[in-house]
Design a protein that fits this description.
This protein has helices at residues 2-5, 7-29, 106-144, 158-183, 229-234, 419-431, and strands at residues 43-44, 47-49, 51-55, 58-67, 70-74, 79-84, 93-94, 101-103, 186-187, 193-198, 205-206, 211-217, 220-227, 251-259, 262-273, 284-291, 309-315, 320-326, 330-331, 335-340, 343-348, 351-354, 358-361, 374-376, 389-390. The chain is α+β, with helices and mostly antiparallel strands and 432 residues long. It has four domains: 47-56 and 319-426, conserved putative lor/sdh protein from methanococcus maripaludis s2 fold, CATH 2.40.420.20; 59-68 and 219-315, Elongation Factor Tu (Ef-tu), domain 3; 70-104 and 190-217, OB fold (Dihydrolipoamide Acetyltransferase, E2P), CATH 2.40.50; 105-184. Strand 22 and strand 23 (358-361) form a beta hairpin. Helix 3 (106-144) packs antiparallel against helix 4. The protein is elongated, with a radius of gyration of 46 Å. Keywords: Coiled coil, Membrane, Transmembrane, Transmembrane helix. Residues 161-188 form a coiled coil.
Length: 432
């Protein structure tokens, strides 16, 4: 009875063990797949040879043109505007000392005549006192028979002479003031320039110190350009730089702007670099000067006017020596990947100049590069030292040196690897 009771349980256990045994047997007789070793093929990379160069480098800036001399014309006397020059209009051109506006001078002519009369009267008083002194001196010698140095100064009329001369000097001073006020009725500027704004008209009464307009000189224009400390160092300049030279003798700069449909250029020079950092922008500002901006000729038919936004190209004062590599070869700011014996090597460099196309790094032991090294310019995912790499079947030619000796040649750029090499590398990447 007891055995019959546990019979279903025993049958189930038997079936379970039988299934496990069958699975174990099947796993043991299952054919094993052949193991194949998978090796990742080397990454195809593009390279460029490192070149040793020594050349002038350029940096570009932007700034707004302003007049080197820009003043506000104000009246120095009171009166009604009597006449206005035809040139006294916005944009009008004038010469040094040319009268732009004249104030009614009737009152000042009266004051001038009165001052002239006062001088003449004071001069007569001096002459009378001198004549009286001469008479008194002669009488002293004739009546007293004593030398003049023993006479009382009042007896010789000396204090009266001094008083008359003092009154004459005061009258002359008043005459000079009257003449000066009379001359101030004619308002002019001491330089050649142009009218920027005007705020006075014919018949208007002006008080002393009233503004009649704003003018600027046309002998020179200035452009203030912001510079970073890195740019100053790259160009070989110094903070607080100042030059007394001008024109071609100074540090050259090229100023250009698009006016209308064409780009125009004006030659300039670096005048100075500020000796303090701007508190708001934390930048240093330099001053570029362009002389004779309104001198038009066959090469330049557009004047450089205030308010124009321009581009400034500044050259280094000396040739910069270093190693040139494409900008695409620079990694993490100061590293490059180098192809060496079918492996990737990482090198640390010190950048001394950067442009949109290329980078110049220091040599002479300051960088871990040497002329002839092959830097990698293509993208390298997961790059690490010792990584297997290879070159395309058609090797890449070295980078061409840009001809930057002339600031006028804006078209010369660094030659990048050609399209055929790029296609070859892309195909190799696809295959891998």
């Amino acid at each position: 009875m007891k055995l019959a009771k546990f019979k279903p349980f025993l049958i189930g256990v038997g079936i379970l063990f039988s299934a496990v045994a069958i699975i174990v047997v099947l796993q043991s007789i299952k054919p094993k797949p052949e193991e194949e070793e998978s090796t990742k093929p080397p990454l195809v990379v593009r390279t460029v040879d490192v070149t040793d160069i020594e050349q002038v480098v350029y940096s570009s800036f932007q700034g707004e043109v302003r007049a080197k001399t820009d003043i506000e014309l104000v009246t120095e006397v009171n009166g009604k505007v009597k006449s206005v020059s035809n040139k006294f209009i916005e944009g009008g051109q004038f010469e040094p000392g040319e009268v732009l506006l004249e104030i009614d001078d009737a009152d000042y002519q009266v004051a001038l005549k009165s001052a002239e009369a006062a001088v003449a009267s004071a001069q007569v008083d001096v002459d009378i006192e001198l004549a009286t002194a001469a008479t008194n001196a002669r009488e002293w010698e004739d009546l007293q028979g004593k030398p003049l140095d023993q006479a009382n100064p009042l007896r010789l009329n000396k204090p009266q002479i001094d008083r008359a001369k003092a009154r004459l000097d005061a009258a002359k001073a008043e005459l000079a003031a009257a003449r000066l006020n009379y001359e101030r009725t004619k308002i002019s500027a001491p330089f050649s320039g142009r009218i920027m704004t005007k705020s006075a008209e014919l018949g208007q009464f002006l008080s002393r110190g009233a503004s009649i307009g704003r003018v600027f000189a046309t002998d020179a224009m200035e452009i203030r350009i912001p510079m970073t400390d890195v740019q100053i160092e790259e160009l070989g300049l110094k903070v607080g730089y100042s030059s007394d030279k001008s024109g071609d003798a100074g540090h050259p700069a090229k100023v250009s702007a698009v006016f209308g449909t064409e780009r125009h250029e004006w030659p300039g020079y670096l005048k100075s670099i500020d000796a303090s950092v701007d508190n708001d922008t934390r930048l240093l500002f330099a001053t570029i000067v362009v002389e004779n901006p309104f001198a038009l000729n066959q090469e330049q038919d557009v004047p450089l006017v205030p308010g124009l936004f321009v581009d400034v190209e500044l050259a280094s004062p000396t040739k910069l020596a270093g190693l040139q590599i494409p900008r695409t070869a620079l990694r993490n700011g100061n590293q490059v990947y180098v192809y060496q014996n079918d492996e990737l090597a990482t090198r640390t460099v010190k950048v001394v100049y950067t442009s949109e196309e290329f980078v110049i790094v220091a040599n002479h032991g300051l960088s871990d590069l040497s002329p002839g090294d092959r830097v990698i310019t293509s993208s390298v995912p997961g790059a690490h030292t010792g990584m297997a790499v290879k070159l395309p079947e058609s090797d890449v030619a070295p980078i061409a040196e840009p001809a930057l000796e002339s600031a006028d040649d804006d078209e010369e750029k660094v030659v990048s690897p050609d399209a055929s090499d790029a296609a070859t590398s892309a195909a190799a990447d696809a295959q891998s």
